[in-house]
Amino acid sequence: MEFSIKSGSPEKQRSACVVVGIFEPRKLTLAAELLDNAARNHLSDIIRRGDMEGKAGSTLLLHNVPGTLCDRVLLVGLGKEKEFGDKEYGDAIRCAVRTLNETGAFDGTVFLTETSVRKRSGAWRVRQASIAAQETVYRFDQFKSKKDKVRRPLRKLTFVVDRRNELSAAEEALNQGQAIADGMSLAKDLANLPGNVCTPSYLAEAAQKMAAEHKIDCQILEREEMATLGMHSLLSVAKGSRQAPKLIVLQYKGGKADDRPIVLVGKGITFDSGGISLKPAPDMDEMKYDMCGAASVLGTLKAAALLKLPLNLTVLVPTAENMPGGGASRPGDIVTSMSGQTIEILNTDAEGRLILCDALTYAARFDPDTVIDVATLTGACVIALGHVATGLFANNDTLARELVHAGDEAHDRAWQMPLWDDYQELLKSPFADMANVGGRWGGSITAACFLARFTRKYIWAHLDIAGTAWKSGTDKGATGRPVPLLMHFLLKRAGKLT
Ligand code: BES
Ligand code: MN
Ligand code: ZN
């Protein structure tokens, strides 16, 4: 879809559809009022008759509105003005785009971006609108032999800003929104692919392809090189699978040569059967999403490269398939990680931390400014935070605050959880330096505490996206989270967010 920005009045738009908001109960937004004046109360008459209360999620499509130059007017209910916040704004945009896509209009001029949202700037509204619009039209139908084609799909959206002097800031915000949405699409596409297609080798090839398109340096470490480096924890996870593990290393150099990089590490388990500690059958298909951390850091890198952010960014993706083959790790096996610390594998289903710990040790080579790992790490995180917030753990409170704030700005929120040493004793093993599981209680915390033992040399945060990376049920699919959070963090670091 094509996007553009303009300023102007709604009655003068030569467009297939002009979109304006109505607050509940029956309160016209400024743009709706301008249309109504030009149309000699046509809108207010309809609203008085009771056809549009302004309830959130409601729409009313009007044709031949007098006094206007557009083919149609779409009224979108915004709910109560007092309650109109980040979520309500996003919902309104999604509702408008869904409806536009279903009507015959090829293009729409959206005035919802003029409506003020508490604490948010015009640039914020445009950035969020372009992300929400692209999210709404996203489809994953490459395996459907008959695709449900939209009869007359929406091709062009124009977002309106109230003043001409906002145009350049809005253009930049639109650009950022489109790059973020592109990054999310890549993340969703990779994540939605089935495990028999998206293997570690497939992920490595996808990374190489993306790197080649954006002048990013890409290196793939194979099993032998990882063995030489001593990554026996990572390698142990792949032993039950026919698929070879990989460590994908990408370096984007948009900053000065001596700027220390931000390192993003993404968990890339392309299918998590649990291994010998086999998972139960119900919903096991969803474990194809166990590479969503990997997909999100690749998507973030793509978005950062599209925007040519003046930063150095390194992306590490340890990737493997966790299967119960004859060579698989057994409960009780002890492995030596690259750090030299030994690990007793009490549960082969706690495999994410086993691949991440070696990647995190490897991250130290880049003399990082900051390291952030992203992982669908624990079911316990879903119990704690549900599907709304990502779990955030950090060994540095400034970094934690930056990430919480970035998530808030992006409406892709994270909630900080404790990483206190008091939890560390749960990882005691009688035979090795640590066990890979800490028992039933505080499972997302003990998982983070495990990772913390490998990140003492630098500033680090861990994002547990087990509850936020995909949706189950009828609208099953990857969400692209936390690409928006990470991109807002990077944009802020790059001085591109005001
Ligand atoms: N990939 C899973 C975590 C997961 C489970 C994410 C369900 C989303 C939904 C991870 O590898 C795992 O299996 N974790 C175990 C850890 C346990 C064995 C300590 C879990 O959460 O049950
Ligand atoms: Mn697992
Ligand atoms: Zn897993």
First-last Cα distance: 27 Å
Which molecules are bound besides the chains? ligand BES, manganese (II) ion, zinc ion
Number of domains: 2
CATH-defined topology of the largest domain:
Aminopeptidase
Number of strands: 21
DSSP strand content: 15-25%
Sheet/helix structural class: alpha/beta
CATH level-four homologous superfamily name of the largest domain? Zn peptidases
Enzyme class: hydrolase
Subcellular location: Cytoplasm
Protein name: Probable cytosol aminopeptidase
GO biological process, one term: proteolysis
Task: Describe the protein's topology.
Layout: E1 2-6, E2 18-24, E3 27-28, H1 30-38, H2 42-48, E4 59-63, E5 72-80, H3 86-102, E6 107-110, H4 122-137, E7 156-160, H5 167-192, H6 200-213, E8 217-221, H7 223-229, H8 232-237, E9 246-253, E10 262-266, E11 268-272, H9 292-306, E12 312-322, E13 333-336, E14 342-345, H10 352-363, E15 370-375, H11 379-385, E16 390-394, H12 397-410, E17 414-416, E18 434-435, H13 443-452, E19 460-464, E20 470-471, E21 477-478, H14 483-493
Parallel strand pairs: 1-7, 2-5, 2-6, 6-7, 10-12, 10-15, 11-12, 14-18, 15-19, 16-17
Antiparallel strand pairs: 2-3, 4-5, 8-9, 9-12, 13-14, 16-19, 20-21
Helix pairs in contact: 3-4, 4-5, 5-9, 9-14, 10-13, 12-14
Bound molecules: ligand BES, manganese (II) ion and zinc ion (ZN).
Zinc ion is lined by residues 269, 272, 290, 351-352.
